[in-house]
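Anyone? Bumping this.
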Amino acid sequence: MLNILDKIPKLPIADLVSDATDWIEDTFDFFFKPVRNQFGPFLEDVSGLLQQIPPIIVIIIVAVLAFFVSGKKLGLATFSVIGLIFIYNQGIWEGLMDTFTLVLASSFFAVLIGMPIGILMSKSNTLQSIVTPILDFMQTMPAFVYLIPTVAFFSIGMPPGVFASLIFAMPPTIRLTNLGIRQVSTELVEASEAFGSTFYQRLFKVELPMAKKTIMAGINQTVMLSLSMVVIASMIGAPGLGREVIRALQRADVGSGFVAGIGIVILAIIIDRFTQNLNKQKGENA
Amino acid sequence: MPVIKVEHLTKIFGKRPKEALKLLEEGYSKEEILKETGNTVGVNQATFEVEEGEIFVIMGLSGSGKSTLIRLINRLIDPTSGNVFVDGKNLSKMSKEELRQIRREKLSMVFQRFALFPFRTVLENAEYGLEIQGIEKAEREKKAKEALELVGLGGYINQYPSQLSGGMQQRVGLARALANDPEVLLMDEAFSALDPLIRKEMQDELLDLQERMKKTIIFITHDLDEALRIGDRIALMKDGSIVQVGTPEEILVNPANEYVEKFVEDVDRSKVLTAEHIMKRPETINIEKHGPRVALERMREEGLSSIYVVDRQRNLKGYITADDASDAKKRDVKGLHAILRTDVPQVSLDTSMQDIFDLIHDSPVPIAVVEEGKLRGIIVRGSVIAALAGSEVNMENA
């Protein structure tokens, strides 16, 4: 009686998922293969290109951009200069460029895919109730789990890193795009309707500009999440600062682990302040 | 032909509108339907027509369905049943594309909380309606600037809405609506969010604009004073139904039922009623026939201390007082000319009661209401007070 629970045979969920993954791998190979063969090398080229630029020039460009993005204040620029010089000094400049490339790529695709989904979601309550639990699932599933099938699909290197980060980092963009558009006041929507706007006019001339702040906050989170995921993705061979951390972990080398960690923190702070300041600029004055 | 014609327009909010509609047609009340079906009747079989160039005010308390009604007119809300005709075309039967055309060309709306786009400048806001019609930049800027000039904001075109005061923001709202050069302006509580002084200023300005532009305006308000001030005709709403449609005077003077009566009870009648409404039939004597003796006699009969003097054509000549008349009688003066006083306090038929207050306060004699030199009536203090109290209003001449 007490072991009635044991009477239920174990459901073969794990096997099912594995089979499904195999099936996906075979069926969508026409998609995965070019990603593996074209996109991977492309990302490596981008990163290589970034590494070709003399670090001193990169530092100057970042400093100037930081100065203007933060509204002509010196704080962010100073921090960026010191931070980047430190990274160069510690010999992890290449790792920085790789990581940056990965973050850029995964954030780009996350926004590219996430925003339209968010927009559709804001227009349909049904879609919202379907997508919301999927997003919850995507965000609560331990990030490592995504790494396993992505290796199967994209082998190792940059593409699986981008793909895993994409999945992990996309939800905030979707959620906040949806929220931002839903929060546009009814009167403004009515105003645009009353003047005879089409669906797209209403979207591009009223809803998206009004939701811009919220959407940008979502994009900021997406970028930060993809940075954290890109580090984890080093476990499946994605290059960058994360690889240094993992290498240090394997050798119990506290020192170099700490240095690589600091490098990630510096990059995170610079990216975060950049995206936040972009959000503050323009828009409504006063 | 009316510009806007609304026929049995009904809106029911809720999940079972058909059922509720049937009950409504069977004559059940709003409360009964809510209890029976869980649906709310927003607008109940509203029917009215709005003529060209008219300011038609729809008035009611909050929850009376007036905001729903105005949104049914441009179909921001789809009606449950009934029809809206704009220039004879039925909006309820239109495709989305046709509806968009009507909204772009014929109907513009002004909103209670302005509904300006905060990320657009004043000029860009005013351009919005033209921009979405695909009109090219130079032309739409020109039209938007004209509209802004019209509302007195020509100097603010590059500001953002948040930099303007409430009254100015609503002017932008008005300019945005006017820039399209629509036939009909739908104004949803357009001045309700403004403080009283600015509100009055905007009302005056709207009337001013209307003099020049002759638009058809449908104006929603919960403020009866506002309705009476700007409305050519007023529709009173209660619980989604239109209770009475009429000119301000008709509503005030002949309330259709107890509800309207109660509603207009507190209104400041002095702003609406004119000399014509409160004047009484005058006691007069004829300067060509009568002398002091008759005058004195008549005054004693009627209990008056003075009496107006006219000629055969009822042209006002002046008045005489009882004292003067008895004096003249003693001295045996024959005609009235010697004792005729001509410092007559007079007003015309359409002088408002507010202006009459000042006159009557200082005047020893009743005020003469004069039209083209002829005496039409007199106003005594008693009738002013009676009118303010809401009783005994003379409608014979209205």
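Late reply, but here is one note on the structure posted above: Chain B has a mean pLDDT of 87.
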